[in-house]
Amino acid sequence: MLFDTAVETYWEDKSRRLRGNTLEGYASAIRRHLMPAWAGRELESITHEEVQRWVDSIESYGAAEKAYKTFRQIYRWSMRRWQLRVWDVTQGVELPERPVVRRPVLTAREERETLRGVVGQEWEAVLLCEAALGLRRCEATGLDWSDFDWRRGWVHVQRGAHWVGGEVVEYATKTKLSDRWLRVPRWALARLRQLRGRLRSGRLRGGLAPHQIAGRFKRLCRRLSLPWVPMTCLRHSWATIALDAGAAIEDVAVALGHTGVDTCVQHYLQSFRTVVGRAADAYEGALMAA
Q1: What's the confidence (pLDDT) of residue 40?
Q2: CA–CA dist 210, 170 (Å, integer)
Q3: Would you say 136 and 235 are in contact if contact means Cβ atoms under 8 Å apart?
């Protein structure tokens, strides 16, 4: 069976099951990496050594990981779909070493300065919610005024807004833990009440797309010389500020909508010094009290 045929059939099947933004990611990997390498090849003729050399030839870790995982999905799906009696050549393929990534974050002081600087912008509510709640960009831009419990000060995060095929498309949160209620800080809730006015419903982003808000935020910060990180890193800033202030890793992981603590440690804990310091203080206190 030709690899091209496998891709075409796989795509027809998955187009009915996967979200548009997920499909766009697969389409990019197929177009940029899979088809140039495997178009015209018989699936049965592809060897493990060839797959390993192909993965090694892709320079960046992120691209190599995405390309390999997409290839593996198509290959294994084809094995099941047509009951191919071939050895799984994707087994044992080694990816490049994952680089250590330190995403930029704002300190509490810097974030306060930035939030003051965006007051009055039409997208202020979105940025305020992302910064104050540690939301993903898609979650912040998917919020509706009706999602807030204004009396108790909580907000229901239940959808995300994505730019797919030239338009904004909304999906429910990806996992059950991502569908969550979060408590809004009192200062943020007071400002959001002012921004809402008499509105009872409607998206906080108005008619703007997520990437448009991100671009306007960046340009404003540059023009006013405000502390800036990409919108996606406001989530990292929230986690880092909370952990440095003494929040438990488990609590931060739940607030971020993660399925486990490992993800929080891997992606959001910028410095272990504060956490290790708390552990050392606890140990010292136990010994002194013994």
Answers
A1: 96
A2: 11
A3: yes
